[in-house]
Amino acid sequence: MFYNAYKYHNYAKGMRFIMDNRPIGMFDSGVGGLTVYKEIRKKFPNENIIYLGDTKSFPYGSKSKENIIDLTKKGIEFLIKKDVKAIIIACGTATSQALDVIKDLYPIPIIGIIEPTARYIAEKTEISKIGIVATAGTIRSNGWANALLNYKPNLNIINKSCPLLAPMAEEGWTDNEIAKLTVHEYMRGLQDIDALILGCTHYPLFTNFFKNETRENTEIINTGTIIADYLKTMLGDKLLNSSESARGNTEIFLTDTECNFTSIAQKLLEKNTINVNKAVMD
Ligand code: DGL
User: Active site residue: 68, 79, 98, 200, which one?
Assistant: First the structure.
């Protein structure tokens, strides 16, 4: 796939615009990051996107911090070789365990899902008690709680790790009785909250079950929508927007293609066909 790798200037009505048609890179351990991709694609129909799912190393949630840092670096380096202009780590586990360590090692902006969401919550005065559901690694890292308390020191936070949910999502078990009961079990003690952060990008696939477990006015926070808003500002600030006339292309790479990725992606993105490529990592 050919991308215009260079910024070019466009003069119109005496104004100068700088455009950059290089793709945006996205990274997750599997299908979860597609919940973020979906929101980004909605907001940026003209951006090219390269999505990498590290299905060979799934799940990330049960791995050590060292391992997650290593895998995240490999994913980022794969995307940088594809000449991406920015990277979204569409994975709570990689964001919470690796982003701080690696973000300054590379010459392009790298965005995770936690900081933009913490800023969003900081603005919401009605949120004083919040639940966070995420993988075991994410909860252990305290990444969400630290970021939230940084903006709202008095926030009442309840953490809950839900280690079964991401593997169930990779299996396509997101709308059956087992998924419903599993969410119910994990949500014990989390009913009376103002907001619930779906702190793992696989979890929006269970949104309806999470909704059923909370009060009607509890805000269920899907990080994808927040990241899409954040990206809009970031691309504008850094003069990285692609030309508006372009139609965005998506390329998906997986480190192992023996998985249910395609069928889950078809359902989530409401598409008849999804093409995936085998990612060859160094
Ligand atoms: N989607 C991921 C997250 O947001 C990873 C789940 C996993 O690989 O365990 O945490």
Answer: 200
